[in-house]
Target: 8-amino-7-ketopelargonate synthase
Amino acid sequence: MNSTTVLGTTTMTLSQLQTELTAELDAIRAAGRWRELRPAQAPPAVTFVCEGQRWINFSSNDYLGLSTHPRLIAAAQAATAEWGTGATASRLICGTLDLHRSLEEALVAFKVGGHPGYRALLFNSGYHANLSLLTALTDAQDVIFSDALNHASLIDGCRLSRATTVVYRHNDLDDLRAKLTRYGQARRRLIVTEAVFSMDGDVAPLADILTLAETFGAWVVLDEAHATGVLGPQGRGLAAQLDHTGRPIIVMGTLGKALGSFGAFVVAPAVVIELLINRARPFIFTTALPPAPVAAALEAVRLLMESDALVEGLHCNIKHMATALGFSPDWTTPVFPVVLGAEAATMRAMQDLQAAGFHVVGIRPPTVPPGACRLRLTVTAAHTPAQIADVAAAVRSVMPASSLVRATHS
Ligand SMILES: *Cc1c(COP(=O)(O)O)cnc(C)c1O
Model:
């Protein structure tokens, strides 16, 4: 009725599309999963200014406070003055600048101590990096073993790769071993896991996963989005806590979280990097990262390699937050999940915290599984002990005591 027939084909009119999409949006709203954009009126650092209100921000991934660091800003400004605002083309056309190469070399130094057999490759985001890795390394002959709580970018990489994807229970080595045993026939096997789980803040049992990989002839792809700048000596990551060079592991990390910039990288044996350059479509078919974020990330890496102070400051605040919220004293990551379950309860708790002066975003499906909605508090090196004590008190006051106990399960 609302459609027009043109040469025998049926064309959907705008009003028909509007009706259909409005129904889909209504369903999202009815499920309590409505999302909307709320622009900040100042850099979202320790304070978050939005719609004329000002909150103390406990939702940022800027774990070291580097996104507003004077040295990163100066580096980005100098790079823009020297190199311009854009890279002008993809990396393989004429978009590879000396700056990209410098950052890639610095990342090899940072992540694997400059090991001569290793190289790094930049990507425009962690999302691009994960799609690149999984699609370049696997196809229909291969099997990917994927942790049940892996990030959407890893899930999408699995889908796009055409490999058989076998999901194992979160951080469950017995389940992983059983599944590796069952899929013995593949050409190539990849175990894919986050280092620090983005919505849960727990850490993958990497040493044991790597041993399993070696036993079964598999490779590990480790996503260090929330581990880079956070875990390991000088924030070099979870893998850097092990002696992992020469072992079957490929490390990916991002520049947009603790490193305060934008983009991502893979550090891996040189042959893996060559394959990515030659095959990874999200690397090949996109304009290279512009000079400013590359220079800012390079400055961030230099800062971390010069001094432990920032990472130590972060860990000091992680301890304060763990104590104040009643988490385990050996909690080592800046991500604190407080699980409420349902959408409505979570969004109400978020509003109550806003009324108390804190910005803590509620997390709902599909970011977390249905029934596992939560407040996700993140602490940074830039918070003060008083701010941490205050937000923890506010969380305790808006939460039923029982849910806080459940929240601290792991
Ligand atoms: C944020 C995130 C990504 C994506 O990185 P971007 O650079 O933001 O695209 C990938 N993996 C994990 C685990 C993340 O948390």
Notes: The CA atoms of residues 38 and 206 lie 37 Å apart.
